[in-house]
């Protein structure tokens, strides 16, 4: 059964994992969030219920 032979895919998996961990992850984590979280409590808008004309 050739799918049990780890030679063709193990090296590719380890190389891609190391590439992601060492190169791409620090670049992605360096981006700033466009909406940083604030310490304020969220404001809940006051809404009125809709009055249906047939009820």
Automatic annotation (TrEMBL):
GO biological process: proton motive force-driven ATP synthesis
Keyword set, alphabetical order: ATP synthesis, CF(0), Hydrogen ion transport, Ion transport, Membrane, Mitochondrion, Transmembrane, Transmembrane helix, Transport
Predominant cellular place of this UniProt entry's protein: mitochondrion
Molecular-function GO terms, alphabetical: proton transmembrane transporter activity
GO cellular component: mitochondrial membrane; proton-transporting ATP synthase complex
InterPro entries linked to this entry: ATP8_metazoa (IPR001421), ATPase_protein_8 (IPR050635)
Membrane topology annotation: Single-pass membrane protein
Location of the region described as Disordered in the Swiss-Prot/TrEMBL record: 36-55
Chain intervals with Low complexity compositional bias: 42-55
Domain of life: Eukaryota
Stretches that traverse the bilayer: 6-24
Location in or out of the cell: Mitochondrion membrane
Family note: Belongs to the ATPase protein 8 family.
Protein name: ATP synthase complex subunit 8
Phylogenetic placement of the source organism: Eukaryota, Metazoa, Chordata, Craniata, Vertebrata
Encoding gene, per UniProt annotation: ATP8
């Amino acid at each position: 059964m050739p799918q049990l032979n780890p030679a063709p895919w193990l090296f590719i998996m380890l190389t891609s994992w190391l590439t992601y961990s060492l190169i791409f992850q620090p670049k992605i984590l360096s981006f700033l969030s466009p909406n940083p979280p604030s310490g304020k409590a969220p404001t809940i808008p006051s809404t009125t219920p809709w009055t249906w004309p047939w009820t």
